[in-house]
Amino acid sequence: MGIDCAKFQQKEVIIKRLTRKINEASNVSEKAVLANQLLQEVEVLLTCEDYDSEDVYCDNCHIIANLRKKTASLILKAKEIKDKED
After folding, report:
1. Which of 16, 47, 72, 86 is the most buried (most CB within 10 A)?
2. 10 lies in which domain range?
3. Cα 59 versus chain centre, distance
4. For 34-55, what is each residue's pLDDT tens digit?
5. Is residue 1 part of a domain?
6. Do 69 and 45 touch, CB atoms closer than 8 A?
7. How many CA atoms lie within 13 A of 78 on its CB side?
């Protein structure tokens, strides 16, 4: 069962593509560029003007979006650490 929301479905295609590219990227710098793009897409979901805290689809959307936001943030933190080491 998926999330019944046109905005989520549209962003999900983009987010999955970015996630695949992050996983395929060969270094943390490439991953960080993609992670920034991922954060922008996720932020659209987290700031959705149609959000309804009583709607299970909205709740699940925010849970998924927040997990992806944490993942992207971890990649950016790894780049920050690498840059300090270099």
Report:
1. 72
2. 6-85
3. 16
4. 999 999 999 999 999 999 999 9
5. no
6. no
7. 15
